[in-house]
Amino acid sequence: MKLLEVKKLNIKFNILDGIVNAVNDVSFEIKKGEVLGVVGESGSGKSVTFLSLFGLIPQPPGEIVSGRAIYKSENLLDMSKKKLSKLRADEIGFIYQDPLTSLNPVLKIITQIIESPVLNRRLTKAQAISEAKVLLKHVGISDQKKNYDSYPHQFSGGMRQRAMIAMAIANKPNILIADEPTTALDVTIQAQIIELVKKIKDEIGMSVVWISHDLGVIAGIADRVIVMYAGYIVEEAPVLELFKNPKHPYTRGLLNSIPRINSDIDVEGIDGIPPDGLKKHIGCPFSERCSSVMDKCINSLPALKKIRNNHSVSCFL
Amino acid sequence: MDAKKLIEIRDLKVFYKTASNLFFKKNNDVRAVNGVSLEIYEKETLGLVGESGCGKSTLGRAILDLRPIEKGSINFDESGQINNKKGINKLNKKNYQIIFQDPFSSLNPRMSVGDIVKEPLDIHYNLRTSEKINRVKDLFKMVGLDPSYIYRYPHEFSGGQRQRIGIARALAVSPKFIVCDEPISALDVSIQAQIIKLLKKLQLELGLTLLFISHDLSVVWYIADRIAVMYLGKILEIGSKKEIFQNPKHPYTKALLSSIPMPDPLEERKREKIILEGDMPNPTHPPAGCVFSSRCPNYIDECSISEPMLIPKNNKHSVACHLV
Amino acid sequence: MLNYTIKRIFEVVPVLLIVSTIVFSVMHLLPGDPTLLMLAGAEGGSIPQERLDELRNIMGLNKPLYEQYFNFISNAISGDLGTSIRYRTPVVEILLEKFPYTIKLSLLGLLVAIILGIIFGLLAALFRDTWIDHLSMTISLIGVSMPIYWLGLLLILVFSINFNLLPSSGATGFDSIVLPALTLGFVSAGLICRLLRSSLLEVLNEDYIRTAKGKGLTDRIILIKHAMKNAMIPVITILGLQFGNMLAGAVVTETVFSRPGLGRLVVNGILWKDYPLVQGTVLFIAFIYVFVNLFVDVSYSWFDPRIKLK
Fold first, then answer.
1. Is the CB of residue C134 less than 8 Å away from at least one CB of chain B?
2. Interface of B with C in 14-73 (CB under 8 A)
């Protein structure tokens, strides 16, 4: 069942140095209960895409140039600010990369968790606090008084991320947008957080958008994956298919950049530098770095074409 | 081992002092490195892995005399010694260099990149300027950058390029030993691969000895010969690459290895992951006995009573655990 | 926290010692003879040297400087700041009588500064790059650059003389304190306004504001509960210093508006070479200033829980 359908989203940023085409003709769907993995490096537009759908990208300097985003038969991009705000409160949850800067340093953690329930579900403060305590315990923060009175800087990185998860699911959202939530965490803590999100997803029945540059993490949690480069979707496939049969040279390049433990295969990396967004592309944005580049690639942009079982690629090969 | 020892570290302790209390002498020092003994052999790459707060960066810097040591000694083959007790602090810095983690803050934005790489030459050598400039251009070529870039400024380069400049700077004085302090953590994955390939190549070509500090085990697999696993200021396990990855003995190492996400969906879903409870304890108050005792899934009473020593199990593998 | 407070209290002592040394030295280095000034007023004509010498002896002005200084300090510690040469009353009494005026003025000035500064700083940040912003910034620039006496005179000209709305002098009730407080506070208001604007703009770009938006909180809640509390931190930091400015500025303001208070006391004391009065008053002002700053520092941790006072 389709929850969200995005068609041909185009977003640009007007900055001092020029115009950055952050998101180009991006189309995708989110189904109920699935985990959509979004892979990309810096400049891929992966975060901007999802944050802008729900009004979290300031406009200016951002600007949604065109596109449609249908959620429950309404176009998100046409919604009033007020309605969008209510939607964020009731149905969408967000967790971000850096839990230290994403939590208000001068407010207690529990204060920040009860804010939205009190405002939007009209709970009394007492009700919200007891609910929050249950939530915190559920995400693995033990119910000791010192935890309830704590400020963000008094928690460790893993605990802060758990607190942020508790905050995001307080109103039982339909979609959880997770923007690189484990990138700043140690690997053992990362494993804990991934398990936690999996558990909660099953309990609440929510869909998850997991944005990351780490293909290993995506392999472990995603059902379907979209790969982004320079604001374009270059490949989309169910997770098993993507890792077994990567078609786009960028996807392949990414997979070749990860050293494989216990094997002697050399890494390849991808030549060149990540896209900086200011340059105007005529052809395929990956053409500068592609090892299989042809003349065609420089002059015209390949469209996203379906090749088989839900697997689409935008490449001339 | 027949290889020559380049650096020998004995019982090293490096603390961060906290402000002393007026009335009570509370001991709140951060015990970043809390008793480490280690040998680094010539021409090897020793990978030092651990999570944040384990002390690996501090250890790297202490070796280069960039942090004062509390106790213990560091002996460098002929180049000197750092020994707090004897008050010795001699290190021929020309042979020992460092590459930093953050390519954005480790290059002085007010200097041209050519000057940044030339600076070590100015300090350690007495050459004519034209000779130094030629050397800088050679270094740029060595790290894969166009020599004509030497007059540009750091902000004109991408993260990966800046890191190459950092490498060139470290290589300028032809050092024997380089501490690589998480040199790729701040870079995109596709660029990370470029840089570790470069480092591996340079190490072979120039016969360098590297201490490669990282929290990323996949990268350490690629580049290191031996690996030391660090936790809360102590080395828990050390051995050859194959031994550590294929035959891990310490419970922490096993947990670490099982948490590494593999880019293989079937494997990922099949794997039995060891999920550790809780967080790393505060380095100001490590647990009694074994530093890992508070989170170890195989905990027994002895673990809180006495600290396990780092004992060799075979000539390529040592572990510090009561149960091994 | 207690430790920190005690440590800070101990630090007050050297500050006061240094202040008193400076005041003492400056007073005694200035040319002029207090006895001459005193007797000249009373008796007129030229005064015989013996009278002057007699008075000097009585006042202890012939003793060596270090002895005078030592007496001054030891007396001060026991609460005796000497006797004013001019008024013939203990300095402490004079201070206690006059200081309420100055404190009232300074506090009111600070209040003016805070209220005006916050309102305009907030508006400037919220309506960035619009005419509101530019207007606020221009006014605050004028405030920061304008000398107090000029502003005071200007306000008198407009409100007292032209429109006859407010009194230009005296200390009779609330009316008379309005203009002086405005004068005094305007400069600090300019500073606070600019500081709050830049601080708020920075805070509004922080990740946690985006998190608050993501939760669906209203703009008003985000601004007041999330943003302001953080943005005010640098402002609080300078409030202690600003109060010091108020105390200093009170000198000029009191003179312009002919109000009684410590400021005028010091100025006149200097003119009359009334050593005990000046020394005592400056020491007293320094004392107040140091304690206000101590209070601000200690209460700082209420605003920013990341500051752990050790």
1. no
2. 19, 21-23
B/e letters for B110-144, b = 16+ CB within 10 Å, e = fewer, are eebbbebbbbbbeebeeeeeeebbebbbebbebbb
Cα–Cα distance measured from residue A140 to residue A196, given in angstroms and rounded to the nearest whole number:
9
| Tokens matching residue B100 | 């930093």
Identify the CATH number of the domain defined by range A2-222: 3.40.50.300
Here the ipTM equals 0.87
CB C82 within 8 A of CB C90: yes
What's the token pair of residue C270? Answer: 């200097």
The residue of chain B with its CA nearest to that of A39 is B189
Contact criterion met (CB < 8 Å) for C211 and A90: no
Name the strand (E) or helix (H) holding A232: strand A232-238
B292: nearest Cα among B200, B230, B246: B230
Q: Using alpha carbons, list the distances in angstroms from residue A165 to A37, A112, A138, A195, B305.
A: 18, 12, 10, 12, 37
**Residue B127 and residue B113: Cα distance in Å, rounded?**
19
pLDDT band at A61 (very low <50, low <70, confident <90, very high): confident
Q: Which 221-250 residues of chain C touch chain A by CB within 8 A? A: 221, 225-226, 229-230, 233
Region of C266 on the Ramachandran plot (φ > 0 left; ψ -120 to 50 alpha; else beta): alpha
Cα–Cα distance for residue pair B190/B160, rounded to 1 Å? 10
Q: CB distance from A106 to chain C under 8 Å?
A: yes
Residue type for A279, please? K
Looking at chain C, the whole-number percentage of residues with pLDDT higher than 70 is 92
The nearest CA of chain B is from the CA of C5 a distance in Å of: 11
Question: What's this model's pTM, rounded to 2 decimal places?
Answer: 0.85
Q: Indicate the pairing of strand B80-83 with strand A2-15.
A: unpaired
Angle at A136 between CA A133 and CA A142, to 5 degrees: 95
What pLDDT, on the 0 to 100 scale, is given for residue A290?
Answer: 86
- Rounded Cα gap, residues A217 and B259, in angstroms: 10
User: What tens digit of pLDDT does each residue of B37-49 get?
Assistant: 999 999 999 999 9
Q: Which of A97, A258, A266, A286 is the best residue to mutate to test the B interface, defined by the most B CB atoms within 10 Å of its own CB?
A: A258
Asked if A131 reaches chain C (Cβ–Cβ under 8 Å), the answer is no
| A89, A90, A102: residue with CB nearest C208 | A102
Under 8 Å between Cβ of B180 and B210: yes
Residue with tokens 């000895």: B209
Whether the Cβ atoms of residue A239 and residue A251 lie closer than 8 Å to each other: no
Q: What is the pLDDT of residue A51?
A: 92
- For B231-268, letters b (16+ CB in 10 Å) and e give bbbbbbbbbbbebbbeebbbbbbebbbbbbbbbbbeeb
The residue extents of the domains of chain A are: 2-222
> Is A5 an 8 Å CB contact of chain C?
no
Residue recorded with tokens 């380089």: B178
Interchain proximity A153–C217, CB inside 8 Å: no
Alpha carbon B14 to its chain's center: 15
**Of A124, A128, A126, A148, the residue nearest A136 (C-alpha):** A148
- Report in angstroms the alpha-carbon separations of B290 from A186, B15, B34, B311, C185: 21, 19, 12, 14, 62
Q: Give the number of other CB atoms < 10 A from CB of residue A16.
A: 5
Q: Which structure tokens are listed for A246?
A: 């990567």
- Chain A residues within 8 A of B250 when measuring between CB atoms: none
Given a cut of 90, is residue B36 above it in pLDDT? yes
Contact between C55 and C44 under an 8 Å Cβ cutoff? The reply is: no
> How close, in Å, is residue B17 to chain A by CA atoms?
20
pLDDT tens for each residue of B154-183: 999 988 999 999 999 999 999 999 999 999
